[in-house]
Recover the amino acids of this structure.
């Protein structure tokens, strides 16, 4: 537990986010495998607060259901009308005070906006540390930005540099608009003083709202210490208001994740065309080739080489395995296995060590033994294939009878012919062979050769009789070295 464990973190997420122009509430838009509010909640958790309350309003059922799913320990407070950030925090504090609990008097209350997904737990911790070390009533996280348009400006006393007020863009004078230090929307407060000051916030501003930012001026005028912590990297406080900013934030977060991966020993050939989710993990000496997307809980083990052109979701790639131009979802690729190019591995696919799922191969719910190969143009669904078996090109595991799925088992060291249909349920014993073009509907004993196809018969002279004078007839005639003209 941190020495500066806050009493509560209040996350503001009640706004509609009209500028997203979306049917999805703003805070539920996602980047790198997590919602905007999910990122903020995750960073807030790093502070280990006693309570974490999210203020919801717009589409609150949807947002609350999402929160219950990603972090069931969060509490929600409802802000029925979006009357401003100050009003939203008031709703959050009321929720904390309700339910028999005492208000977090004396403790630190950290306020974060639900639309700043790049904020790190580290920065929140720094803010919290500065806040308690300086004994402030409030500490605001600020940043120097190249373009301060739209943000609240930090007004400092020219004499001692102390923060005197935050002025919203819409309420700022020309001179104030020139200020490049802005309010990140993240604060650490003394909880009791915050409750008090919120009661004094007025709505006589251009938006007719209760501004949380007015609390600073109120506390300062009452003689309390108001401090600021400047963020080390202004990009961390980027607030998402529209989809341009969403894509910028996604790129920045992706760069951050790839940078961490590269510094831990992963070769990323082209970071610009490689996309990863926050939960993706790597071991050293992984190589990721261009055009690759790694989603969910995907894990790449040491020495694995993935890409170009792979989209892997919740997939484990074993040590030294090679995966090229592949889409995989919920698959497990064994060590030194080979996948692709152009393979599609669906949930429940497990490739053993040195196994192969080759070109134009689809697999689903399939267990492929060590060293077994399905090299070309095949569908393997609901199947178990033993060690070192080779499945001939263009084979289909016929698993669906129109109503139910059935399982096929092929033993170890089998050699099945090309263009086989394994009509499930069926079992091919260890060491068995099957002839090319067979439709296997009955079990094959170990070591047997199964032939399940029509006998070939040749009807001599058919082309000469039925297609006289055709190019085929002439070619046949020439092949038979018959004299010219003779048919
Ligand atoms: C706010 C700050 C501004 C700061 C900027 C940083 C105020 C008055 N302004 O402006 O100083 O520079 O963030 O990004 O605080 N929300 C509610 N209920 C409300 C209003 C807002 O929950 O009634 C939530 C929104 O969902 C959002 C957050 O508060 O997550 C910020 O609201 P937004 O409207 O985006 O504020 P900004 O205009 O960006
Ligand atoms: Ca905002």
């Amino acid at each position: 537990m941190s020495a500066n464990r806050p009493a509560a973190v209040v996350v503001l997420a009640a706004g509609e986010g009209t500028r997203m122009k979306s049917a999805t509430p703003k805070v539920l838009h996602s980047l790198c495998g997590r919602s905007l509010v999910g990122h903020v909640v995750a960073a807030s958790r790093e502070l280990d607060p006693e309570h974490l309350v999210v203020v919801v309003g717009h589409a609150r059922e949807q947002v609350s259901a999402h929160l219950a799913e990603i972090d069931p320990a969060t509490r929600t407070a409802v802000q029925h009308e979006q009357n401003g950030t100050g009003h939203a925090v008031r709703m959050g504090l009321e929720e904390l005070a309700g339910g028999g609990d005492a208000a977090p008097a004396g403790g630190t209350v950290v306020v974060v906006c639900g639309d700043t997904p790049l904020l790190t737990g580290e920065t929140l911790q720094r803010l919290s540390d500065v806040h308690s070390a300086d004994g402030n009533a409030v500490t605001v996280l600020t940043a120097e930005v190249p373009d301060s348009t739209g943000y609240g400006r930090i007004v400092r006393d020219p004499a001692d540099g102390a923060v005197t007020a935050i002025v919203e863009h819409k309420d700022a004078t020309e001179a104030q608009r020139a200020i490049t230090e802005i309010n990140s929307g993240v604060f650490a407060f003394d909880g009791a003083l915050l409750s008090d000051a919120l009661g004094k916030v007025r709505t006589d501003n251009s938006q007719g709202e209760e501004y949380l930012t007015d609390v600073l001026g109120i506390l300062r005028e009452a003689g309390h210490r108001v401090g600021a912590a400047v963020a080390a990297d202004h990009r961390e406080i980027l607030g998402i208001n529209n989809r341009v900013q969403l894509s910028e934030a996604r790129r920045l977060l992706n760069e951050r994740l790839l940078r961490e991966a590269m510094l831990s020993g992963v070769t990323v050939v082209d970071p610009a065309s490689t996309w990863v989710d926050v939960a993706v993990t790597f071991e050293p000496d992984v190589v990721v080739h261009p055009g690759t997307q790694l989603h969910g809980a995907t894990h790449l083990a040491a020495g694995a080489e993935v890409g170009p052109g792979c989209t892997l979701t919740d997939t484990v790639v074993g040590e030294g395995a090679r995966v090229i131009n592949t889409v995989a979802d919920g698959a497990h690729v064994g060590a030194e296995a080979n996948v692709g190019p152009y393979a599609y591995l669906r949930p429940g696919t497990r490739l053993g060590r040195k196994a192969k799922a080759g070109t134009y191969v689809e697999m689903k719910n399939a267990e492929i033994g060590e060293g077994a190969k399905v090299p070309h143009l095949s569908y393997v669904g609901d199947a178990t294939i033993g060690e070192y078996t080779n499945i001939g090109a263009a084979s289909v595991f016929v698993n669906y009878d129109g109503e139910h799925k059935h399982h096929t088992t092929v033993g170890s060291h089998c050699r099945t012919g090309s263009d086989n249909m394994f009509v499930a349920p069926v079992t091919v014993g260890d060491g068995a062979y099957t002839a090319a073009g067979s439709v296997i509907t009955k079990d094959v004993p170990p070591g047997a050769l199964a032939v399940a196809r029509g006998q070939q018969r040749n009807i001599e002279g058919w082309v000469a009789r039925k297609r006289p004078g055709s190019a085929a007839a002439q070619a046949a005639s020439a092949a038979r070295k018959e004299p010219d003209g003779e048919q």
Remarks:
- The chain has a mean pLDDT of 95.
- The pocket of uridine-diphosphate-N-acetylglucosamine (ligand 1) is lined by residues 12-15, 55, 79, 82-85, 87-88, 113-115, 151-152, 166, 168, 182-185, 211-213, 239 (CB under 6 Å).
